[in-house]
Amino acid sequence: MVFSLRPFNLTDTTLACNNIPIPIVEKAEYLGITLDRKLLWKHHIDDLLANTGPALNILPMLSSIKWGSDPVILPLFYRTFILAKLDYGSTLCGSAASNHLKKIECFQNECLRLIM
């Protein structure tokens, strides 16, 4: 993978390691962080929200008034299953466009509304 904001053509270039060709890809995942060719972080943020979405769906069940869990459990659940995933690699995603970061902010606001 080559990182560049400029358009380029690598169809005539072949990269190899031990005579095994290395494929040219648009995005790759490394240590749970999705890197795209232009480092826009859109794919990573979309994957992140897709992976933490099921935990968000559990929060309304846990916060139910009639049979919900103890109020102390809700912030603990949020910190353990949602915030931990959002914080991992957040220093790298800080350079993302504001519209991509706004998606994470809206997701966090929705989570916090449910636990408060």
Helices and strands, with pairings:
Blueprint: E1 15-17, E2 20-22, E3 27-30, E4 33-36, H1 42-62, H2 73-87, H3 90-93, H4 98-115
Antiparallel strand pairs: 1-2, 3-4
Helix pairs in contact: 1-2, 1-4, 2-4
Q: Would you write up a description of this structure?
A:
The protein is of the alpha+beta class and 116 residues long. The protein has a domain at 40-115. It is built from four helices and four strands, in the order E-E-E-E-H-H-H-H. Strands 1-2 form a two-stranded antiparallel sheet. Strands 3-4 form a two-stranded antiparallel ribbon. Strand 1 and strand 2 (20-22) form a beta hairpin. The longest helix has 21 residues, at 42-62.
Strand content: 5-15%
The tally of beta strands, per DSSP, is 4
**pLDDT < 50 runs, ≥5 residues:** none
The computed structural class is alpha+beta
Fraction of residues in H or I helices:
40-55%
Distance between the termini: 43 Å
Count of helical regions = 4
Radius of gyration equals: 19 Å
Taken from the alpha-carbon principal axes, the silhouette is elongated
- Strand order within the widest sheet? 1-2
List the helices and strands in order: EEEEHHHH
Mind describing the biggest β-sheet? 2 strands, antiparallel
Mean pLDDT: 86
List keywords for this structure.
4 strands; 116 residues; 4 helices; two-stranded antiparallel sheet; alpha+beta
Summary of the model, kept short:
This protein is α+β, with helices and mostly antiparallel strands and 116 residues long. It is built from four helices and four strands, in the order E-E-E-E-H-H-H-H.
